[in-house]
Design a protein that fits this description.
Blueprint lengths: L6 E2 L9 H9 L1 H4 L3 E4 L7 H8 L7 E10 L2 E10 L2 E3 L1 H9 L3 E4 L2 H8 L17 E4 H4 L4 E4 L5 E5 L1 H5 L4 E4 L2 E3 L2
Parallel strand pairs: 4-7, 7-10
Antiparallel strand pairs: 1-2, 2-9, 3-4, 3-6, 5-11, 8-9
Organism: Natronosporangium hydrolyticum
Protein name: YbaK/EbsC family protein
InterPro entries: YbaK/aa-tRNA-synt-asso_dom_sf (IPR036754), YbaK/aa-tRNA-synth-assoc-dom (IPR007214)
Amino acid sequence: MGTLATEPALTRPDLLADPVIAALTDRPELAAEALVAPIDPELADTAAFCAAYQVGLEISANCVVVVGKRGGEPMYAACLVLATTRADVNGVVRRHLGARKASFAGMDDAVARTGMEYGGITPVGLPSDWPVLVDQRVADAEYAVVGSGVRRSKLAVPGRLLAALPAAEVLDLALPTS
């Protein structure tokens, strides 16, 4: 995990958003293996983070909030993909949600609905009624480095535990980045 100085996540609640603390507290099997590392919040964005902390893009995962619309009603979901790929929002995700249209949620909307900071949104602690669409590559990762709910730290979580989150569904939902 590059130069990250990790420790058990619940030993550092100061590095976690409140919804993340609650989710880890409710899931001892997740808390037992989830690690947290402090980072410079100015380096929270994927490319800068990976370069500064020598974390490979192949283990860094992005969590994006997507909103689908069907019959005028919005449906929210999270997509978790490796940094080497991007979520197929207009194809796989839209069809999986049964939506006529799907797009990335706006920053203010995503922050308000998750209780997390933009650039730190993580699948751990999302609203319980949201599907969490986990790309197969993330599920297969020994560890994936994801947001912690705040920009000043990152979580490292085994892929199998991300795939086992409540409402998680493992799909092949990524397109290669180019």
